[in-house]
Amino acid sequence: MPFTSKKNSAVLTRAIQGRMRQPTTTMRGYEAVNRLLVAAGVETVFQYMAEDTMELFADMERTHADDLSVIHTRHEQGAMAMADAYARAGSRIGVCIVGRGPGIAQTGTAMLNARTNGSRLLVIVPTPARDDDHDPKDFDQTGYLRSTIGDVLTVRSETTLLDQVTEGLRRTHLGESPVAVQVPKDILKGSIPDETILDDLPFDASLATTRPDPPRIEPDPDKIDAAVDLFLDADAYQPPVILAGTGAAAPETRETIETLAERLSAVLLTTLKNIDAFADHPFATGFSGSWGDQLSNEFLSEASYVLAIGCSLNDHTVYDGDLIADDATVVHVDADPASIGRFTPVDLGIVGDAHRTVEALIEAVDRAGIDREGELWTDDLRKRIADYSALDWREFPEADGAVDPRALTRKLETILPGARLVGNDGGQFRKWSFHALTARPEDSIVGCDFAAIGLGVPMGVGLGQYLKDERRANGEDRVAITFTGDGGFMMSIQELETAARHDIPLIVVLGNDSSLGSEYHYLDVQGDAAEVARIDTPNLADVSAALGTEAHRITALDDLDAIADRLQDPEGPVVLECVIDHEVRHHSY
Ligand SMILES: Cc1ncc(C[n+]2csc(CCOP(=O)(O)OP(=O)(O)O)c2C)c(N)n1
Ligand SMILES: [Mg+2]
């Protein structure tokens, strides 16, 4: 649909006036904003309505119902978390529109979560009318948005409204961080001059559904040779480690890394965010770090040569540096020069695209005549890796009427749909899903960047909505799944009703230990009064069913068999309330 011409806009304006019976001669601000969003290819908007945005949503309903899915949430924080997860799921940007003042103030945690991740999220939010001295909803909204979203644009006049929203869309499309556009309420509701409505859009109609290709930065050949020299100087009897992060997550990069690992006889590790990048590889041990697989941490701490690719080597991954031996040689590859050595000292930094750098390393390794294939990739090593599971670290006594979360997540791996997009909340329960569930990096959204709980359910709804849009466009077959504890679930339970009302397919795996489990175990390990973190919950399957979802209560592993079929192609939200043993502790506590 062409955006509009001045001539068309006049015709359209007359038609809208006729319907709205408003004595204006030009288009309203909100009408122009809506047209711009649709023209940019936005397919879904997550929102919570207020008096300053209500006409905008009325116009979306009246004029754009065929082009836009407008998700009416139950809490602004939910709307923001959904839009964030939607943005993380693939190449579409997330759009969230909430009211000024208290509306946007409710969303701080979700905005910080999006910013910490670098989500392509566009927030549109009104400000008080320019001539209003006593708006009860007024606060330092700009300062608040700067400290949460970061990048804030503010519309100053009717003539720049569309320019600023266009700029917001453009920055969200191009960037790796969220953007907020503030629009004074009087500009949003008032008329905008005809001449600001452009004949031709200054962007492509797929702006909101595509992601620009990142520049491929060629590595410095001297640095490549230096990395190979350092490898030759390292202890040849100790398996070198290749540690790959999200910068190396693209499938073709993973394959190239596997080839390099073979030449070097290296063990393959990932960061948490690049989980399962090498899932089927016999010499891959999982992710390292504070929550990581102990075997990965062992290899990392014993390695004399560590090649880190596309990761920041932050405290999560290297456990405050404890996982890197003092005499280890660390080579760090990243496309962002500022990332090299930022958290962990390194011996050599190579600025470059992960894929191109690994290809260059393979060429240099070949030139140097290095082919250690099989030298350290022995049957013993293969067996050691195959026999290991992070879930087996110790025994816990069996509990009545509750399942061991480790056996539960193992079983879920076999009965949840294989084509899956997995998200999660904070807390202990979801940590087992990292070890038990297979989800390639593109199928896994580790969503707790700001270490918050309470966002798992709405983020799951955002993932479900993304797959709905993707299914319509490209025949997607994955099912959205989110893992949450009872504490996080109770913070955002209302969004189950949103998912049910909008028929958004989603499986919520809820590990109910009637505890703030994380705190319970921290306190318990410290020998403190852990019982303070125990909180009885109601029957959460019943509560979920009352909110319109399909819900099942699991108190024994066999309960899962009876419902396995129902999980394969859900048409709306399904909650699995799994009553789990609160004494079983993850090894990270
Ligand atoms: C918004 C927010 N509030 C509090 C915390 C502290 N916190 C971290 S994990 C956790 C326990 C969450 O309980 P639950 O969701 O039931 O998960 P569990 O650990 O029991 O599996 C809490 C309270 C936090 N990270 N974020
Ligand atoms: Mg809990």
| CATH structural architecture of the largest domain | 3-Layer(aba) Sandwich
Provide the CATH superfamily of the largest domain: Thiamin diphosphate (ThDP)-binding fold, Pyr/PP domains
The helix content is 25-40%
Per the CATH scheme, the topology name of the largest domain is Rossmann fold
**Envelope shape:** globular
Q: Looking at the chains present, what oligomeric state does this protein adopt? A: single chain
Question: What order do the strands of the largest sheet run in, or round the barrel if closed?
Answer: 2-1-3-4-6-5
Bound molecules: thiamine diphosphate, magnesium ion
Number of domains: 3
Distance between the termini: 55 Å
**Which percent band covers the strand fraction?**
15-25%
Task: Name some characteristics of this structure.
single chain; 589 residues; alpha/beta; Rossmann fold; 3 domains; six-stranded parallel β-sheet; 23 helices; 17 strands; binds thiamine diphosphate; binds magnesium ion
